Queue: 2 jobs
Job 1
Amino acid sequence: MNGENPAVRAAVALAVTALAIAAAILLLGDAAYMWVKAAHVVAIISWMAGMLYLPRLFVYHCDAAPGSELSETLKLMEHRLLRVIINPAMVLSWVLGLWLAWRGGVLMAGWFHAKLALVILLSGLHGHLSAAVRRFAEGTNTVPARRWRLINEVPAVLMIGIVILVIVKPF
Ligand code: HEM
């Protein structure tokens, strides 16, 4: 049934959030900026939580015997984490962030370009992890646990850079 499909639920949640934000923009006028910024921060917290957790699940998955109960459970967890949390949170982060940049008039600021570069790298990593979820599901992953441990550090490093750029605005 459609209502039980996590991808459909995530799409519905995304549409409801987008409508709520459009309504806030229409009803709140200038105050909408801070509400959208709050929603942006909530979206990036969700995105980052997933991006930090998924490679950790891959580390456990590498050690699980193929076809075992643990391996099947991890497949389900990875699939749901990606579809229900990480993908919608990334879309929302981008939509809200670009609206903030346009409304805040920072599209030409140096710090914003640097932040954008790091966020594009983060989105590339998102694509890489998403492809890995598919490979783990098919049982064709060849990346060893020790490499996933290293990859696990990348979103944390990017996050630190992004937060410094957007808060300190050094240039
Ligand atoms: C996806 C693309 C993104 C775009 C286009 C974007 C853009 C923006 C813009 C224009 C602001 C408002 C800045 C201000 O009012 O001073 C903002 C706020 C913020 N962004 Fe993003 N952002 C994105 C993703 C991220 C990510 C991935 C993170 C963290 C990992 C992040 C962290 C923050 C934080 C913490 C704030 C609040 C800053 C403050 O109030 O001083 N953003 N973002």
Job 2
Amino acid sequence: MERFDQIKPLWLRGSGGQERSCTQSCAAYDELLRFFEESSDLLCIADFHGQYKRLNPAWQRALGWTLEELRARPFLDFVHPDDRMVTRTEMDRLASGAATVAFENRYRCEDGSEKWLQWIASPLPGRQEIYAIARDVTRQKRLEREIIDTMDFERERMARELHDGLCQNLAGIAALSASLARRLDPLSGAQAESAREIGKLLGQTMRQARDLARGFDPLHLEVVGLATALADFCTNTGALFEIVCKFEFKKGPPPMDAQREIHLYRIAQEAVNNAITHGRARHIDVSLSSSNGQGILAIQDDGIGIPEPSERSQGSGLNTMAYRSRLLGAELTLQRRLPQGTVVTCVFPQPLAILSIRPCASKLNKNSSAAKNPDSHRR
Ligand SMILES: Nc1ncnc2c1ncn2[C@@H]1O[C@H](COP(=O)(O)OP(=O)(O)OP(=O)(O)O)[C@@H](O)[C@H]1O
Ligand SMILES: [Mg+2]
């Protein structure tokens, strides 16, 4: 198949041999050029060093920069700072010969706003070039964001209902059964014992409801920090599902702003829930660590192993995890483990600026049991 960039030199040089083949090439070139110029998708050719060589006019319409401005600087300059690391990794993949499908990153617009672009790209290693098509998916992202915000809001509401409604009622009934047991004591020891048994069961149910409420709303995360919140979550999950669920904090990342920590907490929560529900795991390890300036959240289970994408059922959990990762500028991977199970890894950047956002939290964390001794998480 002819490629338009091959046809162009022929046409420009006018040295196609016979006039007829030149005319055909020119016509083919004009046709392709028309697609290129009029496409509402953002089309480009870039080199392996990260410089645009050719862009269609849709770029200027979408981002506001002129094509000259876009060509004048390395394209990473236009990428949102939080997405540069993942973009660089994707570039390396392309340079090694792999194609890109549905990669997403954020671009800075000339007016200071940002846009989400979704990419399909393939390399031409012989020419050290990348041919790419980007689509503006900002509206879709906004919608996703709204759905996630609504989910988070609903979880908080459920947590409040559980804590302030159900738990208070249970506490009231437990108090009534305690007083009933006292009144029954002089009349019938066996009946008083039954009333105490009811009180005990109510106490257990109340603790479960409180743990559930905390799982729904890790708001205490802002106070205790991500490590302690994850440690609590693992302890509660282990107890609730009667499995081993451990948390390990290995030279963990520094505290981050609460919103980032909530995204990481939710990613871990979804991965653990999936491990239990789908993987039927009996042993789950959650760990938070850092290496080479990057934070690493890993969730490993010993379940049946995640199926290939085409065989997975259509839920929203994995999509939401991927979305939260993108917001963090993180790379999320899901792999089967040997001999069995699944490992979910989220490698996220730790921008230095974040350190100054939560000075109080960092002080709190230093004093928290999680920061002092990772093993103290395991109750
Ligand atoms: N740890 C795991 N072990 C085995 N299978 C998994 C694991 N995690 C995910 N899966 C598979 O991936 C599918 C999609 O997971 P996802 O979280 O997106 O949806 P869901 O859990 O089915 O529904 P939702 O999360 O929306 O309640 C699951 O149905 C399951 O087949
Ligand atoms: Mg799920």
